[in-house]
Design brief:
Order of helices and strands: EHEHEHEHEHEHEHHH
Structural class: alpha/beta
Number of domains: 1
Helix content: 40-55%
Shape: globular
Radius of gyration: 16 Å
Largest sheet: 7 strands, parallel
CATH architecture: 3-Layer(aba) Sandwich
CATH superfamily: P-loop containing nucleotide triphosphate hydrolases
Number of helices: 9
CATH class: Alpha Beta
Length: 216
Amino acid sequence: MKTLAVISQKGGSGKTTLATHLAVAAEQHGLPTVLLDLDPQGSTRVWAEQRGGNVPEVLSDHPKQLPALIERAEKAGAALVIVDTAPNADQAALTAARVADLVLIPCQPSLYDLAAIGASIDLTALAKRPHVAVINGAPVQGAAAEDARTTLAGQGITVSPAIVSRRAAFSNSAITGQAAQEYEPRGKAAAEINALFRDVAGRLGVTLPQPQGVAA
């Protein structure tokens, strides 16, 4: 079993959107997945309630219970655990990073987000875990996303080649407890999420079976 922690010390980076969408992508690629919600706001839990019990399974608890939750997921046969963390919660995020095989750090392509990512990078270094940043919520037009990725790479930060744009399918799908790839399977949002998932899976060393009905 592999564990992915989605961490950003800055609010509004889109952690929950990526965590939920990557969990759905994993299930669509044949990987039984458990999504752990450590954010007191409980957004992931609300999304799960809208799904009416459909996979992935979502568990929520206090960050101190994280090792027990991961053990529970492994015993239940999960191939992947994705941990959604709260912003501005150093100790909880550090706990999640330490149990993760990989830390995913979403970063919006803005001056403030680029300046704030250092706190998340420092946290992964303290946890001694590998990281990959992803440009998230990017404008669908213009060079902002590529410029941001170049800036981060120039600072020695590992950056995913995948870019996730600001698309209506993400907000529209959440209303009914779906992911964009369920809402618009052949849409651009679905393709971006699947590109990010394949990149993350590769970094985790996960071999993917041939997906069924998944956008390329």
